[in-house]
């Protein structure tokens, strides 16, 4: 067991947003916690994903708004060097000392090193110097190791040293020629950001027939139109079958399935992610080591009968979104406290509700969605009615831009008369998503929602349009 300094009520492996919140909730409930992290405290989101990508996209978003109104024309291209410099400040120049202080101020113990399960309630930490320290948990171990970018097995691709989100978001220079493989959220965001910052020849290779295949079809259509207007070459139904790079700093050539060759300075892969479970020691506690870790409604690993192992965030595969990982962690931490203290009844908030998981693609146009799409609702056999509206018909759209393009769609459960899902696509619409999230999650009856009066003239009037189209 080691000395008392190596024993904690809760041990969290992974100091990304999910791990940090799980530890903070445990400490708030009166337990002691240790947080183990091999890389940067703050995780992928803080340094290589959510935060830096949005720092790169924000100037692009503002530039698009400026272009939409006369009298505010840009005086030349976006200053890429200034944008990259601000990006560096936003990610603290990849210095995690501030994030470590945040953890220690909870207070929790931060342990730098590679954490690995070594049997029930035991975690071995291999430090930067190679020394191994064994930690013992009294009540729970939480795995919060996130996910890693998935690189497909295209011949020559790995050898060509492709970019993933990690290299793209911390790039010191913007390549003039860029090939992006993938048409999901990461591919769309980074293709648009890097193109606007100087990747003048940007080509997207999308294996399917549309962008953002998990969203309503019109979302990908509007975004593809916008990318093409800006000069991005979006190719549907195309895949790379071979990739070559002869020299370390030389160009890369992508050979496509239609026989075409594209030469670029960099190739970026954005084809998905996989749970980060390699060498995590899951086999020592009877959990399948290939991931993701299956959990119950309190984020407790179902394969561990004694119920001491939990998994939150990307590593459990439920929802690969930072805000949903943080939601899971709040729920998980509270459940651990309730069980550790043997509180009467079931653990507080012991049901994870993913039906209202919101998501935003921070492109121009912005793509916002919550709940079910029409196809998902119909596949579930629900009594569906669909209502759509062209956002350009909202009075405030003319104030936003002379050529405003956007659309909104809601999915209604006709029997209960509540929203099952909503998708909003257009410039400057992301702040309207939370209203839709509340309506979906709280199952607000449409007859009640009708009394939530939208302010004139704002884009929120689309709610009035939708409800009137429904017949209210």
TrEMBL record:
FAD/NAD(P)-binding domain ranges (all copies): 8-316
Keyword tRNA-binding: no
Binding-site positions, NAD(+): 182-189, 272
Short name of one Pfam family: Pyr_redox_2
InterPro entries: Class-I_Pyr_Nuc-Dis_Oxidored, FAD/NAD-bd_sf, FAD/NAD-binding_dom, FAD/NAD-linked_Rdtase_dimer_sf, Pyr_nuc-diS_OxRdtase, Pyr_nucl-diS_OxRdtase_dimer
SUPFAM superfamilies given in the database record: FAD/NAD(P)-binding domain (SSF51905), FAD/NAD-linked reductases, dimerisation (C-terminal) domain (SSF55424)
Protein name: Dihydrolipoamide dehydrogenase
């Amino acid at each position: 067991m080691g000395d008392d300094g190596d024993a904690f009520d809760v041990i969290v492996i992974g100091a990304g947003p999910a791990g940090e919140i799980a530890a903070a909730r445990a400490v708030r409930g009166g337990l002691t916690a240790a947080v183990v992290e091999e890389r940067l405290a703050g995780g992928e989101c803080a340094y290589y994903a959510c935060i830096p990508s949005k720092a790169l996209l924000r100037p692009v978003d503002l530039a698009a708004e400026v272009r939409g109104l006369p009298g505010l024309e840009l005086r030349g291209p976006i200053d890429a060097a200034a944008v990259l410099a601000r990006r560096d400040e936003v990610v603290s120049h990849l210095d995690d000392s501030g994030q470590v202080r945040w953890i220690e101020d909870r207070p929790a113990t931060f342990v730098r090193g590679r954490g690995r399960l070594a049997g029930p309630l035991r975690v071995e930490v291999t430090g930067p110097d190679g020394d191994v320290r064994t930690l013992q948990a009294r009540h729970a171990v939480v795995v919060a190791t996130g996910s890693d970018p998935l690189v497909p097995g295209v011949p020559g691709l790995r050898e060509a040293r492709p970019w993933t989100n990690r290299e793209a978001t911390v790039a010191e220079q913007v390549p003039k020629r860029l090939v992006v493989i993938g048409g999901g959220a990461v591919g769309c965001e980074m293709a648009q950001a890097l193109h606007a910052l100087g990747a003048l020849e940007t080509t997207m290779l999308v294996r399917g027939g549309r962008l953002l295949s998990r969203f309503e079809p019109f979302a990908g259509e509007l975004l593809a139109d916008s990318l093409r207007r800006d000069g991005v070459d979006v190719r549907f139904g195309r895949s790379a079958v071979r990739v070559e790079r002869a020299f370390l700093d030389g160009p890369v050539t992508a050979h496509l399935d239609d026989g075409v060759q594209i030469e670029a300075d960099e190739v970026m892969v954005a084809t998905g992610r996989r749970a980060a479970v390699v060498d995590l020691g899951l086999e020592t506690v009877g959990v399948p080591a290939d991931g993701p870790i299956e959990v119950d409604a309190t984020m407790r690993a179902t394969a561990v009968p004694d119920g001491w192992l939990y998994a939150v965030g990307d590593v459990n595969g439920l929802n690969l979104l930072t805000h949903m990982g943080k939601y899971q962690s709040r729920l998980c931490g509270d459940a651990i406290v309730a069980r550790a203290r043997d509180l009467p009844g079931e653990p507080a908030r012991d049901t994870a509700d993913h039906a209202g998981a919101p998501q935003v693609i921070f492109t121009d146009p912005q793509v916002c969605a919550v709940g079910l799409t029409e196809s998902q609702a119909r596949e579930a056999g629900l009594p569906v009615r669909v209502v759509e509206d062209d956002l350009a018909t909202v009075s405030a759209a003319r104030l936003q831009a002379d050529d405003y393009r956007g659309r909104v769609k809601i999915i209604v459960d006709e029997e209960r008369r509540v929203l099952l899902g909503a998708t909003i696509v257009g410039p400057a619409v992301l702040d309207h998503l939370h209203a839709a999230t509340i309506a979906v999650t709280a199952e607000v009856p449409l007859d009640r929602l009708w009394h939530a009066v939208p302010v004139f003239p704002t884009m929120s009037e689309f709610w009035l349009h939708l409800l009137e189209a429904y017949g209210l």
